[in-house]
Amino acid sequence: MSDTLRVIPPQTPEGYSASPEASVEAPQTHVERERAAVERVLLGPLPLPVERPHDGAVLDVQPTAPEGIGVALTAYQIGGLFEQWRHGE
Amino acid sequence: MVNKIISFIFGKQAARMVDDWRPRTPHAAMVEQRAKQYISQEAAIGAQVLGPIPAGHTREFFCLDRNTWIWRENWRDENGTPQQFIVNYEVDPSGILKRVNGGQYSRVEGAELARFDQAIRLYYTEVAQHVYGRTAPALA
Prior knowledge:
The complex is a heterodimer.
Chain A: H1 30-43, E1 50-51, E2 58-59, H2 68-86
Antiparallel strand pairs in A: 1-2
Chain B: H1 2-10, H2 12-21, H3 26-49, E1 58-65, E2 68-76, E3 82-92, E4 95-100, E5 105-107, H4 110-130
Antiparallel strand pairs in B: 1-2, 2-3, 3-4, 4-5
Helix pairs in contact in B: 1-2, 3-4
């Protein structure tokens, strides 16, 4: 790729990029490292386990289930029963 | 299959309209008619589970199918103009999605989600008993 066509990674106001290329650059502070780790978790496949940036501790992070899933299952189950009953089953 | 394609392209409402026009055997038509009567009875009970109904309002709350719950409310404003809102609650694998008067979808969360959960559970036990004469089976 020609240098003139090289895409400049988008920069956040804090000065580091959310692009995979720039994420290799070492953030300068603990806060920035934490933020970069959170962005990797939110924007990409969840890496399990995760190494905590500021002290290297390995965390067994699990994705948090949205609170509505249980309610959706209940609503779906109730709806299924009513559909059967309405048709005399 | 055709119905699924219509639903995908034009939405659920269009698919239901086409479904309504589809010729049916007399028995199937009778079953459909009976199902609509059941939904109407359910909606009357459902109106009571969402709390007090403001004076002059008419309310329906019912389970349309396993993926859709409807809250419809009608009233007249101070000028006598008819007003209405319709809230569609869509059951999605990721949770409950809400759409008011055909607008944008938003996710139901927090206290609103808890109230919706309470409302559908109460609806379930009340409708099972008073419309279908059944004791509501325990939910998994």
